[in-house]
Amino acid sequence: MRIIGSISDIRAIVRAQKKLGKTIGLVPTMGYLHKGHISLVEASVRENDYTIISIFVNPTQFGPNEDYVKYPRNMQKDSQLAEEAGVDVVFAPEAKEIYLDGFKTYVNVEGITKILCGKTRPGHFKGVATIVNKLFNIIEPDKAYFGQKDAQQVAVIKRMAADLNINIEIVACPIVREHDGLAMSSRNTYLSPDERKAALVLSRSLFEAGEMIGSGERRKGIILAQILKNLNCEKLANIEYVDILNADTMGEIKKIEGKVLIALAVKFGTTRLIDNIILEV
Amino acid sequence: MRIIGSISDIRAIVRAQKKLGKTIGLVPTMGYLHKGHISLVEASVRENDYTIISIFVNPTQFGPNEDYVKYPRNMQKDSQLAEEAGVDVVFAPEAKEIYLDGFKTYVNVEGITKILCGKTRPGHFKGVATIVNKLFNIIEPDKAYFGQKDAQQVAVIKRMAADLNINIEIVACPIVREHDGLAMSSRNTYLSPDERKAALVLSRSLFEAGEMIGSGERRKGIILAQILKNLNCEKLANIEYVDILNADTMGEIKKIEGKVLIALAVKFGTTRLIDNIILEV
């Protein structure tokens, strides 16, 4: 497995593989890899001849008061995990390789980026869409893999790909959870032992909502109220949002029907976690 | 020569040509072709194995009070001119093929789109960058050709290509002029005979400015004043802007040095014309 920092080098590698008729899978990440990321790599290795993982903590998707500087990084461990999972090349550029002097161009998916995480993280999805667009242009993969934990990110990327005629298949992979239910996230490392324990309220609330819907409950207000009740019982939890939406369009729904996304964001101390479930009703 | 309306058809054609090892040149246009467009086609035919011209009057780059509906169209004549110039395929999609229901994604080059034409045509360059980005993703050409008459458009596209790592060479071709100096434009067809005559003041003013600089004048204010004096002498001319900028960055300059762009926009009746010259000092 090779680790590449330059755009021209990774392009040469991709060109050579394509000349051999190989298909390319891309797994864009910010590193500090966990089993969620590895599940994306495994899907890519299964479905493509050649798998590239990008590891780049993208400054433009962090707000001024967010955790860009302290975001966890461990290149050595990441390389080892990537190699074990079957990655062919790690693309790990420096920020100055990605953002030229005088950089001024952004890709923005309007509307869909104003809700949920977009409300409290203005500019976040503009940064995400832009870096993913750039990685797509650099690597030109056949397929690209994203985790469903970032449900809104998946919707933004799919919308961008459709709107800009990007000829890459966007694959969303299921959330991978710890044995006790906590959704895998690089930010889980920030949690104190008490917060780590408290954070279980997220998946517990979502699973209970899923059970209520499974038992026939179709009133959105009742489901939301039950989730909020659960979250409010947990003293360390600071709710940012809970919402129930159409899972494909991220549009508002009045009652529980079709493909439904229940998504939430909650802070534990200074650590902001997100989680969600998707249900077919 | 074929005329193609569907994205999947044009993609199949490009794929087949690339499989044969052919290079692809793209000339994006809004049709109503004149010799300026044809010079772009000729450059593409010279430098590529296969040339595609797109003809698409792009609604998202017109403001609500602009000339989208009345913009001149003549597909039959365009096809004939394109074929004579050596075009292999005309890509002429309907608007609904290009803009899906729920379209929400825009590419925006910030800063550079706020000056000159961007001031009076808010959203124009966002529409331009977005459609060109889409055409690039649909056709995936090796090179793409743009007319230097739209100097700011060229700067926006070059900036977008660099910023988003678009692996396509952007080629700017010189302005083509009528025998009397008027820059070729599809919008010249709007001009009444009197306006057509009056419009010569544009190129005349620019050429005189070029002569002043050629004779050693380096004071921006003096050059601008002379151009404005000439334009103001023409009763039918309504000045929108005249400016002298760095030709590469579109940044402000204090004195005439380096690669300099003199650009202007002037209305004659309801017809808005632009023109410019680039000088190396």
Report on the structure:
The structure is a homodimer of 281-residue chains. With 281 residues, the first copy, chain A, is an alpha/beta fold. The first copy, chain A, folds into two domains: 172 residues, HUPs (Rossmann fold); 91 residues, Pantoate-beta-alanine ligase, C-terminal domain (Pantoate--beta-alanine Ligase, Chain: A,domain 2, 2-Layer Sandwich). Helix content of chain A is 39%, strand content 22%. Chain A is built from ten helices and ten strands. In chain A, strands 1-4-3-2-6-7 form a six-stranded parallel beta sheet, with helices on both faces. The longest helix of chain A is centred in the middle third of the chain and has 16 residues. Chain A is globular. The model of chain A has no long low-confidence stretch (mean pLDDT 97). Strand 5 of chain A pairs antiparallel with strand 5 of chain B.
What are the SSEs and their pairings?
Two copies of one chain form a homodimer.
Chain A: E1 2-4, H1 7-19, E2 24-29, H2 35-47, E3 50-55, H3 75-85, E4 89-91, H4 95-98, E5 105-109, H5 117-120, H6 124-139, E6 143-147, H7 151-163, E7 169-173, H8 193-198, H9 200-214, H10 220-233, E8 237-246, E9 259-268, E10 271-280
Parallel strand pairs in A: 1-4, 2-3, 2-6, 3-4, 6-7
Antiparallel strand pairs in A: 8-9, 9-10
Helix pairs in contact in A: 6-7, 9-10
